[in-house]
Specification:
The chain has two helices and ten strands, in the order H-H-E-E-E-E-E-E-E-E-E-E. By secondary structure, the chain is an alpha+beta fold. The strands form two sheets. Strands 1, 2, 3, 6, 7 and 8 form a six-stranded antiparallel β-sheet that branches. The chain has a four-stranded antiparallel β-sheet with strand order 5-4-9-10, with no helix packed on it.
Length: about 150
């Protein structure tokens, strides 16, 4: 088995995010105009535990139309290294509101050819998913882990 450290896992997740959001070189002029009105964002957060570099990471993909106050959350992914079976869920809290469960507990699966567990929600590169207000706090929580990985939608 290939052993991955938390730092290597974080770098791999960041690279995967960059590759999946790259625009194709053959996009037509009409497609480029539509893409200019939509801004896509990707964020990676790392949770440290007991002095380790990164016990798990969370990646958030979201998009918005230029000038809009709402954000579309299209993909949430979390990876835990070294591999440990478990469940994770994602939560959100809109500004001035209470915390809501975005998706209930989902069982993690092992990353192929790796030593990590992974949970995913949504579709990479899509402009779909729940619409949340700008400033919403989105978090990933693993069962039996006290800390959450969170990001505020900008």
């Amino acid at each position: 088995m290939l052993k991955q450290t938390g730092k290597a896992l974080l770098v791999g997740a960041t690279t995967a995010l960059a590759v999946t959001t790259a625009a194709p070189a053959h996009a037509g002029a009409g497609v480029q105009d539509a893409a200019a009105r939509i801004s896509k964002h990707q964020e990676v957060r790392c949770v440290q535990h007991s002095g380790r570099t990164c016990s798990y990471s969370a990646s958030f993909f979201y998009w918005n139309k230029k000038g809009s106050g709402s954000r579309g959350l299209n993909y949430v992914q979390s990876a835990r290294s070294p591999y440990k079976a478990g469940k994770a869920r994602w939560l959100y809290q809109q500004p001035g509101g209470r915390t809501h469960v975005g998706q209930s507990w989902r069982r993690a699966h092992q990353v192929p050819r790796g030593n990590a567990a992974e949970v995913e929600w949504g579709k990479v590169g899509a402009t779909s998913g729940p619409k949340l207000r700008k400033g919403t706090l989105v978090c990933v929580q693993w069962a039996h882990v006290a800390k959450k990985a969170c990001h505020t939608l900008k």
